[in-house]
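BUG: 3D viewer hangs when loading the predicted structure for this chain

Environment: internal workstation, default settings.
Expected: structure renders.
Actual: progress bar stalls at 90%.

Input used:
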Amino acid sequence: MNVFESKARGCGYRIIAGIDEAGRGPLAGPVVAAAVILPPGYEHPEITDSKKLSPRQRERLYGIIQRDAVSIGIGVVEAPVIDAVNILQATLAAMKDAVLELSPSPDYLLIDGLNRIDLAIQQETIIRGDSRSLSIASASIVAKVSRDRLMEMYHRQFPQYNFLRNKGYGTREHREAILKFGRSKIHRRSFRVAGIDGLPVNKKLQL
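C-alpha cells produced before the viewer hung:
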C-alpha cells in the first residue's frame, strides 16, 4: 500500500498527499473530499478502501488517522453547487479545497480515479487508488466518515427522509419519501430519481 508513496519519494518528493471523495452518487447531501498526508514510511495493516470497512471500523480508523496524520484537509460542496456545475466538477472542487487546507502544503498528490485537480502541484491519478495507496485509503475513510456525520446532522433537520440510515443514497425507502414529501433543500435536483422522474426503478441512476 506504500508503493506509490515510495515511488514519489524516490523521485525527490517529500510531502505526499492522498485524495479521495465520498458522496458522488447520492440523491441528497454534499460531496465530501479529504486529503491526507501521512508520515514517511507510515504503515497500518487495517487501513484500506472505506467501502470494504464496516461503519464501526471506519470510525475507529478515522480516529487513528486523525491522531497519526501529518495533516488532514476536508472539502465540502453542497447540493446547489452540484446542480449548478455537475457532480464531476463539484467533486474536483471539493478535492481542491481539501488540498488547500493542508499544512504543510504537499508537493505531490495521489488522487483516486482518473481526473486531475486544478492545482500547480505534481500529481498522479490512480484507478482504484483507495485499494492501492495507503494515503488515498486514509483519505477515503476520512471523507466517508466526515460525510456520514454531516448526513446524520441533516437527518435531525429532515427526519422524514431517514438520512441516518440511507445517507442520501437512492434506497427504496428514500425514493418513497421523496415521492411523499418532495425534495428538500439538500436534494440534488439535477439527479433523476428512479420511479419518480420517468426513470425505471431497475435502471442505475445516472445524471
